[in-house]
Structures are given as C-alpha cells and as structure tokens.
Sequence to fold (113 residues):
Amino acid sequence: MSESINIGTVEDIDEGEATVISAEENGTGEDIAVFHAEDGNFYALNDNCTHETASLADGWIEGTEVECPVHSAKFCLKSGTALCMPATIAARTHKVAVQDGHVMLYPNVSAVV
Ligand code: FES
Fold:
C-alpha cells in the first residue's frame, strides 16, 4: 500500500484553483500540483510543464484541462495528456482521493488505471 499525504480539506482548494506539494514533502523529487477541477474532482500532475519551465499550478483550469501560463499548452488533468502544442509529452499523473472530506495525494501512484 502506498503512502498518502493529507493535503487538507476539500474546502482548502477552491474549484478552479491548485496548490503545490513540494518535492521535499511528496518524496518524488518533483513538485506536484493538485488541481480542483471544474467537474468538482481533484487531480494531480507533476507541476512543471513538460515543454519548458513553468508551474502548471499557476496556469488556468478550464473544465478538466489546465493551460500552461507560459506558452499555453494544455494538459488533460485526468490523463496528463498534452492536448496541444507546444507540449508533446504527457505530464505525469498522481492519484488523488477524497476521504472523509480530506484530499489525499498518493505520490508515485498513477491516476490512470
Ligand atoms: S513552458 Fe508550458 S507550454 Fe511552454
């Protein structure tokens, strides 16, 4: 069973917003962005854009996609798939589950089954 990190309650991240769990805290060596998407669900991707250097948590959430704030590549929050140029490489996903009103992040556990 993988370790999970309690990153707070569902009220702590407004819909359409994201928070970053640092590499030190999550143990993966990469910062992880946790998004509260407009479908009401939570999703997690590696925070750094796969194109160059940008925090996806600073991007714009639309539905279940996030747009990079630097060159506007879009990523699917569910699968990490790069949906448009200039990004061509998928962002790594991590599992997120809501348990008793708390948002639990499972670093290194893929969200894609
Ligand atoms: S850094 Fe994200 S699209 Fe270029």
Observations:
- DSSP finds one helix and nine strands in the chain.
- The pocket of FE2/S2 (inorganic) cluster is lined by residues 49, 51-52, 54, 68, 70-71, 73, 86-87 (CB under 6 Å).
- The mean pLDDT is 97.
